[in-house]
Amino acid sequence: MVETTHKRTMTSRERLWAALNLREPDRVPIWMLYPREYYGAYVDVHHLPSYARVMPVIWAETDWLDRRDLRAPAFYSAATQMETSVEAHPDHTIRRTVLHTPLGDLTSRHWQDNKNAAGSTVEHFCKDVTDLEKILAIPYEPVEPDLAAFHEAGKRLGDAGLMMVNLETPIGVAYELVHPETFALWTLTEREALVRFTRVMFEREYTFLKKALEKGAGPVFFAVGTEFVAPPMCSPQAFDALITPFDAPLFELIHRYGGKVIVHHHGRISAILERIAEIGADGIHPVEEPPIGDCPLAEAKARVGDRVCLVGSVQYDDFERLTPDEMEALVRRQIRDAAVEGGMILAPTAGPYAAELTSRHQENILRFIAAGHTWGRYPLPS
């Protein structure tokens, strides 16, 4: 028998926690991915004029996962030394970073749009696999996590949601250093070097994470990394070598302290869906349906819904592409496919990135939220 908890109106905190524990809340939680306060990866939704129409509704009628970084120096070492310079252009900036290592300097360049939250690395630190050894040559000086700002944000959040910590998994450190195509090749040709580097990052991250958990980090962690070792670029065997041995112990540590892990995964997931569940994911965001991904929500629910909360999964572009009626129909169908007996959080797949929302985008945000309330209340309408 399903455990139900919808006899009264829940707080957002209770609602999200029930969903992550695979219970039925009073309604399906609605998470817009928006930063509750300013967060650099997204546009400033709190001050941009085109968001003024939707923000009051988002504040009043959705549930917050307040995503925060726990600041740590690169490679979890206080000995890491970098120098950064910025080239300013009319519509973008280029940030050039020089990483000093005992075996020689490494350079990266990042392009950033001045208006929208769009950017990309145009030069990566590691051009050759031996560059990973240069990074490992940097002395390791452990650091203490500082959670003062995190706990202050938690006080401001209160019962309006759950605090959520960004967790770049060990393979994610390696991935960010290398061009994506080069990384995919290395999972085949230089796997031993990647495993060695990832193991060192895991040991350092485990130490840092344990200290953070002891200081009250959590309760939710947003883990990024599995999408970098997934088909079609990488094989399930690469996942077994580069994800499972390192992510599973981190997730187990989080669970030991009473926390939950949402694995962030764009793109194809079907071939590794059970693997993600088996390493201890409590939620997956997003499960992208065809044609962007390869796993319908109904299929994901049938395969792992007894172990994992499904978070999603309306494509960000659909807010611009669909009519409001089509948006409501999509939300209704996704709730029907993924929310039965609990274990779903309704959310977009990405965003917010656009500095200027069109009227269509605004209308669809409002319809998305309204549809979530209409079709997501338990017991679910037929």
How large is the radius of gyration? 21 Å
Strand content: 15-25%
Number of discrete helical segments = 14
Total strand segments: 11
Q: What do the pLDDT scores average to?
A: 96
Count the domains: 2
What is the C-level CATH assignment of the largest domain? Alpha Beta
CATH topology of the largest domain: TIM Barrel
- Order of SSEs, N→C? HHEEEEEHHEHHHEHHEHEHEHHEH
Q: SS-based structural class?
A: alpha/beta
Please bin the fraction of helical residues. 25-40%
Low-confidence stretches: 1-6
How many angstroms separate the termini? 19 Å
CATH architecture of the largest domain: Alpha-Beta Barrel
Identify the strand order in the major beta sheet: 1-6-7-8-9-10-11
Let me know the largest β-sheet. 7 strands, parallel
Q: What is the 3D shape? A: globular
Describe this structure in words.
With 382 residues, the chain is an alpha/beta fold. It folds into two domains: 12-78 and 143-375, TIM Barrel (Alpha-Beta Barrel); 81-137. The protein contains 14 helices and eleven strands. It has helices spanning 12-20, 55-61, 130-136, 148-157, 170-176, 180-189, 191-214, 236-242, 244-256, 273-278, 297-304, 318-321, 324-338, 359-375, and strands spanning 64-68, 81-88, 92-100, 106-113, 119-123, 161-168, 220-224, 260-264, 283-285, 309-311, 344-345. A hairpin with a 3-residue loop joins strand 2 (81-88) and strand 3 (92-100). The longest helix has 24 residues, at 191-214. The two termini are 19 Å apart.
